[in-house]
Design brief:
The protein is an alpha/beta fold. A 7-stranded mixed sheet has the order 2-1-3-4-12-11-10. A 3-stranded mixed sheet has the order 5-6-9, with no helix packed on it. Strands 7-8 form a two-stranded antiparallel ribbon.
């Protein structure tokens, strides 16, 4: 059996943390900055960071359309925080900001406030046994969930922080910051 290769979109954000997390699992990992690298991966992580910057840099480096097309063609994808924003419809986009699509959801950027409003919580995540310790850093929230989208995680107050549609997973939090590997394993299992 050939080893699976998971890419981390390496335009901006916490790329290194995702690479380190994935290296704990039984996969090859590459940082994706070009269309040739994108073509080598069996799955892709879109990391947290600044969604407006990721959007702009994806266009500058010629990656916007290829990533959008790969997702539309069924590439398994995990988007964390800004990555979630890049997969849904953005309720409050910055000027010129676009998403890659893949999830029939509406996402509100920075829904919990600024950096000082960051917090951690233990969550039930569908498909993951036990609780997931999650870090929320300037996190988005899923405001609308479309047909065919499975809610996989909610806060205690009912706000949606994790969704899955087909082979696309979007979460508001950062498993790579808390040493959590089981969310990345969910992505690998979709290959």
């Amino acid at each position: 059996m050939t080893r699976k290769t998971v890419g981390v979109l390496a335009l901006q954000g916490d790329v290194r943390e995702h690479v380190l997390t994935l290296r704990q699992l039984d996969v090859d990992v590459i940082e994706v900055k070009t269309t040739a690298q994108l073509a080598e991966v069996d799955a892709l992580v879109i990391p947290g960071g600044e969604s407006t910057t990721i959007s702009k840099l994806s266009e500058i480096f010629g990656m916007y359309e290829p990533v959008k097309k790969a997702i539309a063609n069924g590439l398994p994808v995990l988007g964390t925080c800004a990555g979630l924003i890049m997969l849904g419809e953005i309720a409050d986009p910055a000027s010129g900001q676009k998403s890659f699509g893949g999830l029939d959801v509406t996402v509100i950027r920075n829904a919990f406030g600024n950096q000082n409003d960051s917090f951690e919580a233990d969550l039930d995540v569908a498909g993951v046994p036990g609780l997931v310790h999650a870090a929320f850093i300037r996190a988005p929230i899923v405001d609308r969930v479309g047909n065919g989208v499975e809610v996989i995680a909610k806060l205690k107050d009912g706000r949606v922080v994790g969704v899955k549609q087909g082979k696309v997973i979007g979460i508001s939090f950062h498993p790579e910051v808390t040493g959590e590997t089981r969310i990345h394993q969910l992505l690998i299992d979709l290959i």
